[in-house]
Amino acid sequence: MQIYMVGGAVRDKLLGRPVNDHDWVVVGATPEQMLALGYLPVGRDFPVFLHPETREEYALARTERKSGRGYRGFVVQSSPDVTLEEDLSRRDLTINSIASSTDASGVTCLFDPYHGEQDLRARVLRHVTQSFREDPVRILRVARFAARFADFTVAPETLQLMHEMVVHGEVDHLVAERVWQELARGLMEGKPSRMFEVLRACGALAVLLPEVDRLWGVPQRAEHHPEVDTGVHLMMVLDMAARLQAPLVVRFACLAHDLGKGTTAAHVLPRHIGHEERSAQLLKDVAERLRVPVDCRETADVVAREHGNIHRSGELSAAALVRLLERCDAIRKPQRFADILLACECDARGRLGLEDTAYPQRPRLLAVLGAVQGVVTRDIAATAAARGLSGPQVGALIHQARVAAVAQWLQRDGTD
């Protein structure tokens, strides 16, 4: 039995990046031997065990043979005869196909049959073998790694292979949950725009997210968007979300906020009248298709519908501001409203030359919300009940009190 550290832990250690998780491969062992040593079985599709003390994962060396379409169409073989090189050959990228071991004297040795260390130095994402084409999830993984390692390039032969997989329909067989999982992880990387650039370059974006793919080449009004191209703007917004360390709900809202601009009639361009409602409808389609979590889709829906009004909120009256808060359900869900405002700031600052500008709308609207929250609705409801009022009448009184509170705030603190 021989045990090697493999995959991301080796890669990140060589890059000088923090190593959070360790993956191990065991060569020359059987499941029975692992159980006898106290390892706990957890693998459903192939033999994986948890270390009895560290609880880190140890997988028996294995090979995979394609047996159908999609990423689930594999027959897995695991036996003591499978070599380390055979196990590494089934991995996606050379930089993830490096193994290391430490001998009794503490010396670490690398096993690198596919020259992953060389590609780390050259900053290249390169597939290991032609078996790459058997799993379409690898297209998403390459794109995600491009978002994580922004100074790496995708090897031309790997990009060509990804394109061929798209043409042959492999991407069509991806299940929604796996697409969302990789998409969400890519959105949370340091430069998420790179993920979409790679997916677009190989043709996968048009298959997986045609609503996003069609934004490139769509012009916008230059006075509002110096970058002009809607797709370019979207990438700048996503990278601004990463710069501001926004959570996933915000980053997904940024991704979906302008989808409707891709369906604007040509004779209307560069204006995009009514794109907000179209964006919300397209978002609904995307969310259902990819089974996007409820919190992400609900936040994105409000951002799609209201980002223009939030940008213009400095021009609104007290009554209009309260109506905006009500449409955003800000009073009942203040944390979600804070996320909505952060997405709007990413949109405003994700424009050429405006990346370092202030976005006063966010603190201002949070202050307006604070003024509204200061209205004691319980007292208003009790007074209304004493007058024999109920239902919508009470709601109207509460609304009026909130408008009055915002008007007072505007008079005292809300003017520039």
Mean pLDDT figure: 93
Low-confidence stretches: none
| Quaternary structure type | single chain
The class by helix and strand makeup works out as alpha+beta
End-to-end Cα distance, whole Å, is: 72 Å
| Strands in their spatial order, largest beta sheet | 3-4-5-2-1-8-9
Number of strands: 11
The largest sheet is:
7 strands, mixed
Rg to the nearest angstrom? 27 Å
List SSEs in N-to-C order: EHEHEEEEEHEEHEHEHHHHHHHHHHHHHH
Give helix % range. Answer: 40-55%
Shape: elongated
Q: Provide a count of the helices.
A: 19
The fraction of residues in strands falls at 5-15%
Give structural notes.
There is one protein chain. With 416 residues, the protein is α+β, with helices and mostly antiparallel strands. Among the domains are: 2-115, Beta Polymerase, domain 2; 245-361, no CATH class; 374-412. Helix content is 50%, strand content 10%. It is built from 19 helices and eleven strands. The strands form three sheets. Strands 3-4-5-2-1-8-9 form a seven-stranded mixed β-sheet. Strands 6-7 form a two-stranded antiparallel ribbon. β4 and β5 (57-60) form a beta hairpin. The longest helix has 21 residues, at 392-412. The radius of gyration is 27 Å and the shape is elongated. It starts with a strand and ends with a helix.
